[in-house]
Design a protein that fits this description.
This protein is mainly α. Helix content is about 70%, strand content about 5%. It has one domain.
Length: about 425
């Protein structure tokens, strides 16, 4: 749902995120906060995204990318707005989340949004109706922009999308947030523990109900990264419960095992796989034509379903060029690697597992961007920078712990 006069960029979360950037810049200009004192690696990743998209944007408007159309220029404008919204979430989250109480507050709201999406997915999966249509009717001043896919058949099952754009996005975002949900269930003193674990279980259900290879890959990557940074007893419990969860899914969802097995063992005869691989020669020709800046942000147009690039890295190489691709790799991988490094060096178990949860979610996003064009999906696009900002907060918490330990060690040596 978008505000008609703004167009495709006029969604509620996009508008609010851009307003956040305005407030952040104004508070900096008026001296209400000092952003240089709260630096973290996620900012550098956001800066690289800005450089990659802005360089292609300038090339498009300067005519270096070939002829441009009014529609193409509007698409590039939307991408620049998207970058502004992403930067806002990275900057504001990193600056405002300063204590563990702040982390828990943000995690509660973020996971509440995921919980709502999962409840919508449960209704879609069990009853075959889409509650999001009711919400659309209650949004005066907005119009339906189209393009979303609430239901999609795969094998014997009907894939659902929850409140996201597509079932693949639903699965990947759920996999990204799964480690954070486990972390919250272990460390949040507020609320009922059973409810925290119910939210976690629904994220697992979301990955399963979509029967998405991308979602299963994301969940596997997320758990592989996160589990080693969990406290010892919960780590053993998760490793013991995980096989039981898989068996329960097989037994409770009719046709799940057959459909999932068919999806995971598919070869080049599967249309979803052959479409991806058949695009490689065409992508290489397009890169050869405009190697450095591409055709412009958001300017790649798929003429039919067979030309959709279900790979964010390939999409970036075509649309924003090799310079933009390099910047995108930094944007998607650098926060994950720095969060994992933070988890390895943090001293307290809550901060260690928080950094591990952020690193796990970000690594899942980076890996799954190979299997779908992630930044074309609105929920993924704004959830990812939130996790980047949260990983920056974990980095700062770990840094303060290290400084406190060093100061305490220095004081004890001085007293001796």
């Amino acid at each position: 749902m978008v505000i008609d006069v703004i167009g495709a960029a006029g969604t509620v979360p996009m508008i609010l995120s851009c307003l956040l950037l305005v407030f952040w810049l104004c508070s900096w200009a008026w001296g209400l906060h000092r952003p240089l004192e709260s630096r973290h690696p996620g900012r550098l990743a956001g800066f690289f995204l800005l450089v990659g998209v802005a360089s292609s944007y300038v090339a498009l408007y300067g005519g270096w990318s070939g002829e441009s159309t009014a529609t193409g220029l509007m698409a590039a404008d939307r991408w620049l707005i998207l970058v502004a919204a992403s930067l806002a979430l990275i900057l504001v989250t990193g600056d405002s989340v300063r204590t563990m109480a702040d982390v828990l507050q943000l995690a509660r709201w973020l996971l509440a949004g995921a919980f709502f999406s999962c409840l919508v997915g449960v209704v879609q999966f069990t009853l075959g109706i889409n509650p999001m249509e009711w919400i659309q009717m209650g949004m005066p001043g907005f119009r339906y922009n189209g393009g979303d896919t609430a239901f999609q058949a795969r094998g014997n099952l009907m894939r659902v999308a929850g409140s996201t754009f597509h079932s693949i996005e639903f699965a990947v975002v759920s996999a990204m947030l799964l480690p954070l949900s486990v972390w919250r269930a272990l460390h949040d003193p507020r609320g009922k523990a059973w409810f925290h674990w119910l939210q976690t279980a629904l994220l697992v259900f979301a990955v399963a109900a979509t029967v998405s290879r991308s979602g299963i890959l994301g969940a596997a990557v997320a758990l592989a990264v996160f589990v080693p940074f969990m406290p010892q007893r919960p780590r053993r419990a998760v490793l013991a419960v995980l096989p039981v969860v898989v068996v329960v899914l097989f037994l409770t969802i009719p046709g799940f095992m057959l459909t999932l097995t068919g999806a995971l063992t598919a070869d080049d005869s599967d249309p979803s796989i052959s479409t991806r691989t058949n695009n490689y020669p065409r992508v290489m020709r397009m890169i050869d034509e405009r190697p450095w800046f591409g055709v412009g942000p958001g300017n790649y147009t798929a003429h039919g379903a067979l030309q959709i690039l279900d790979n964010q890295y390939l999409n970036a190489a075509v649309s924003i060029g090799l310079i933009g691709l390099a910047c995108l790799v930094v944007y998607l991988w650098f926060p994950a690697l720095t969060a994992i490094h933070t988890a390895r060096t943090a001293s307290s178990p809550p901060v260690k597992s928080l950094a591990g949860a952020c690193g796990a979610g970000l690594a899942a996003a980076a890996v799954c961007s190979v299997t779908f064009d992630s930044l074309s999906f609105p929920v993924f696009t704004l959830t990812y920078p939130l996790l980047v900002g949260l990983s920056g907060a974990a980095w700062q918490l770990a840094k303060r712990e290290t400084e406190f330990v060093s100061a305490s060690s220095g004081s004890s040596k001085a007293s001796e």
